[in-house]
Design a protein that fits this description.
The chain has three domains: 1-65, no CATH class; 88-344, Aspartate Aminotransferase, domain 2 (3-Layer(aba) Sandwich), CATH 3.40.640.10; 353-477, Aspartate Aminotransferase, domain 1 (Alpha-Beta Complex). Helix content is 36%, strand content 11%. The chain has helices at residues 33-36, 54-67, 88-94, 97-100, 112-129, 141-158, 176-183, 201-207, 230-239, 331-367, 388-394, 398-407, 435-454, 456-460, 473-478, and strands at residues 133-135, 166-170, 187-191, 212-217, 243-248, 267-270, 290-292, 304-308, 311-315, 383-386, 414-415, 424-427. The radius of gyration is 26 Å and the shape is globular. The relative contact order is 0.13. The mean pLDDT is 94. Bound molecules: pyridoxal-5'-phosphate. Pyridoxal-5'-phosphate (PLP) binds at residues 80, 140-142, 174, 176, 218, 247, 249-250, 271, 286, 288.
Length: 487
């Protein structure tokens, strides 16, 4: 790794014998370790640890932290990921000892507060989704999808319709949708998009039938477009005996405006770590609760929290598909989502969605003359440009544009997704950005469009100002080096 002067940063800094901290000599009689621990638990060799001084450790980790880009550093318009600012108060609340220090084996009567929080959070998610009851167990969006599909399967089986083995998924779907359907042992049937970016209803009409178990849909879809035919789509799937699954990973566009349940969906998952402000991106704990309609409630994973008089108790739903996660899910993520919902209130959540949508339309409006916009309609929380013009006219690819953006100090948008847009650039600003930040991003994107014309080589060799240049991304993902080993 290099800094901007081209002088390499030192990464391997261990020096034999160097120490960060020394304990004073023992001033009590020493007991031999062999007397304290059985011999088989004693280390035979010295541990292989880096030998470094305290200041070297501090600088090493501080420098590493500064090589990374995050929402706390600058703009992060990564479409489909909702990289919004996470209010610190949520972290403070989750760290309160009454939440952080309780144990999952504690008797119910000693954790009434935690159960109340889970109960209320389930109710809030039911209210937002327009559905009946929730499980908070799933640890991620994809995990919620799998859980929802298992519930679908259990429901069909209970009705003597276990033969239904097809899940319909649009071509613009998030990759986890077909993957989850495969994992739940379904056959994936793809439905194409129409000219306006929504589900092609005529194609869907031909695909639904006696084998349809359900349809998975995200609305607004990954193009950031609200499907205007959603009620017709729901009717077609329901008439064929199927269920509708709503991928609500990014619920940032609809909170307090549209309830998925009102548009015909039977199952919804929410990504608390996207919409409800838990920091994500490093693979940390998340939560993908699902909410289901009344007829599916008996199949939910258990236990769920129910209210009896003024007590909260744990109950196993009658036909539960069983547990999908140890204990109660990632509890601290639930606390943060609860704090987020309570601090915003109903009005505040609606405002979040309105602002997210206005911000995305503002960016789209100021970029659509210089980049292709395949679906020129009002967008919701995100929109998808295409770098086709830059590729055809100047030999500059979307990847080059994304890499050049790093030189401007912002994270690149999602690129090459969704798959149904050539050279896709998927931009999601979120509601937490100021107009000044949005304007700075517009200026950067406009300048890059000009550079593509006047100096395409500078884009093809970008980034120029980051600690590392272009990486072998396939190897970085497949052979990551995540821990120190003695050389
Ligand atoms: C992020 C996302 C998912 C998957 O969520 P994970 O928590 O990463 O498993 C599913 N669908 C959509 C539309 C998403 O954006």
């Amino acid at each position: 790794m290099m800094n901007k002067t081209g002088v390499p940063l030192l990464f391997e800094i261990s020096t034999p014998g160097r120490r960060g901290y020394r304990l004073p000599d023992l001033d009590v009689p020493e007991v031999p370790l062999e007397e304290l621990l059985p011999a088989e638990y004693l280390r035979q060799q010295e541990p292989e640890l880096p030998e470094v001084s305290e200041i070297e450790v501090v600088r090493h980790f501080t420098q590493l932290s500064r090589l990374n880009h995050g929402v706390d550093v600058d703009f992060y318009p990564l479409g489909s990921c909702t990289m919004k600012y996470n209010p610190r108060v949520n972290e403070d609340v989750a760290a309160l000892p009454g939440f952080a220090a309780i144990h999952p084996y504690q008797p119910e009567e000693t954790v009434q507060g935690a159960l109340e929080l889970m109960y209320n959070l389930s109710q809030y998610l039911a209210e937002l989704s327009g559905l009946h009851s929730a499980t908070l167990q799933p640890a991620a969006g994809a995990h919620g999808e799998l859980t929802g599909l298992w519930i679908m399967k259990a429901f069909h089986e209970a009705n003597g319709e276990g033969h239904r083995n097809e899940i319909i998924v649009p071509d613009s779907a998030h990759g986890t949708n077909p993957a989850s359907a495969m994992m739940a042992n379904y056959k994936v049937v793809e439905v194409p998009s129409d000219g306006r970016g929504g589900v092609d209803v005529e194609a869907l009409r031909k695909l639904v039938g006696p084998n349809t178990a359900g349809l998975m849909l995200t609305n607004p879809n990954t193009l950031g477009l609200f499907d205007e035919n959603i009620c017709t789509i729901a009717e077609l799937v329901h008439a064929a005996g199927g269920l509708l699954y709503y991928d609500g990973a990014n619920a940032n566009a609809l909170m307090g405006i549209v309830k998925p349940g009102d548009t015909g969906f039977d199952i919804v998952h929410y990504n608390l770590h996207k919409t409800f402000s838990t920091p994500h991106g490093g693979g940390g704990p998340g939560a993908g609760p699902i909410v289901v309609s009344e007829k599916l409630a008996p199949f939910l994973p258990g236990p769920i929290v129910v209210k009896q008089g003024d007590r909260y108790v744990l109950k196993q739903p009658e036909k539960s598909i069983g547990r999908v996660k140890g204990f109660y899910g990632n509890f601290s993520v639930l606390v943060k989502a609860y704090a987020y919902i309570r601090s915003h209130g109903a009005e505040g959540l609606r405002q979040v969605s309105e602002t997210a949508v206005v911000n995305a339309n503002y960016l789209m409006h100021h970029l659509k003359d210089l980049y292709d916009l395949p679906y020129n309609r009002h967008c919701k929380h995100e929109f998808v440009l295409s770098g086709r013009r830059q590729k055809e006219q100047y030999g500059v690819r979307t990847l080059d544009i994304a890499k050049r953006l790093l030189d401007y100090g912002v994270h690149a948008p999602t690129v090459y997704f969704p798959l149904n847009v050539e050279e896709a650039i998927m931009i999601e600003p979120t509601e937490t950005e100021t107009k000044e930040t949005l304007d700075r991003f517009i200026a950067a994107m406009r300048q890059i469009a000009e550079e593509a014309e006047t100096d395409p080589e500078s884009l093809r060799s970008a980034p120029h100002y980051t600690p590392v240049g272009r990486l072998d991304e396939a190897r970085a993902a497949r052979q990551p080096i995540l821990r120190w080993r003695k050389a």
